[in-house]
Design brief:
The complex is a heterodimer of chains A (about 90) and B (about 180). Chain A is built from 1 helix and 6 strands, in the order βββαβββ. In chain A, about 10% of the residues lie in helices and about 40% in strands. With about 90 residues, chain A is mainly beta. Chain B is of the alpha+beta class and about 180 residues long. Chain B has one domain (about 25-175): 2-Layer Sandwich (Gyrase A, domain 2), CATH 3.30.1360. The radius of gyration of chain B is 19 Å and the shape is globular. Classes of the chains: A mainly beta (about 90), B alpha+beta (about 180). At the A-B interface, strand 2 of A face strand 10 of B. Chain A: It holds the Pfam family SoxD.
């Protein structure tokens, strides 16, 4: 069982968390002008890196969205940071 | 006379497990007991919690996981900007948005509060949840029997588990089968 550290709650079991997506993936705007190819790229293409990665996760029990830096090979979580300013 | 009425509609009445009579339901396990805390009033508060607490329940501490709440009002922290206020007497609060930066929702019937106690409470809780009870977490929210719940102490070897009302039946039956 792996522990993730929620920026608000502290260390909690991984079963309390849900993957929210790759960090830094910007939704293309304005929507009416976005080509089908760019939509497809936004929706379906993922980096899936081997090694260090930045991801958005959500702690389901408290509702906190946060940035997690982790390693997809060793599963070591280096940092978790809140996305909110306060 | 044969019954020729169509028999296509399933009787789902027996599908759901029966809901206990919460006014009298009690369980006595090996070293622990359970009951439902009756007649609690509840408010869900979101937004500026510091101001909300000052207005609704002054001098009431924010309670996180496993922390002991004392008195007739509990301010149970769910997340960074959300909490559940429970009280024996109704709190003077207008539901809706407050200009000072918080929202209040009436939640009297939204949650059910189970009280567990006894000398073997700790071993019972270790089966009910994975969470580190000594982790000093700011939030009382965690998974109990796999369901979202708020977990805190009210005295030595006594805890309250607040779950959304429909989930209370599941947790009660889980306790019955333990």
């Amino acid at each position: 069982m792996q522990l993730f550290s929620c920026p608000f709650c502290g260390p909690r079991d991984e079963t309390e968390f849900t993957f929210g997506g790759e960090a830094g993936k910007i939704r293309p705007e304005p929507a009416p002008e976005v080509s089908a190819e760019d939509w497809s790229k936004y929706l379906h293409r993922v980096g899936n890196p081997r090694g260090a990665t930045s991801e958005i996760w959500v702690h389901q029990t408290c509702g906190e969205y946060f940035l997690m830096e982790r390693d997809t090979v060793s599963h070591v979580v280096s940092t978790t940071n809140a996305l909110r300013k306060s | 006379m044969p019954d020729h009425r169509p028999q296509t509609m399933l009787d789902r009445g027996a599908f759901w497990t029966p809901v206990p009579d919460w006014s009298t339901a009690t369980l006595d396990g090996n070293g622990w007991s359970a009951r439902v805390v009756p007649n609690l009033h509840r408010l869900l508060v979101s937004g500026n919690l510091e101001t909300a607490l000052a207005n609704l329940a002054p001098d009431t501490p924010s309670i996180g996981l496993w922390q002991i709440s004392e008195g007739n009002i509990q301010a149970l922290r769910i997340g960074r900007d959300r909490m559940l206020l429970t009280s024996v007497d109704p709190l003077a609060a207008e539901p809706g948005w407050n200009a000072e930066g918080y929202a209040v929702s009436l939640a009297d019937d939204a949650y059910c509060t189970l009280e567990l106690q006894g000398p073997k409470l700790r071993s019972l809780l270790e089966e009910m949840t994975f969470v580190d009870l000594e982790g000093e977490s700011s939030s009382a929210a965690t998974l109990v029997c796999g369901q979202l719940a708020l977990l805190h102490s009210t005295a030595d070897k006594q805890v309250w588990v607040h779950v959304e009302t429909p989930l209370a039946t599941f947790i009660w039956h889980w306790l019955e089968r333990r």
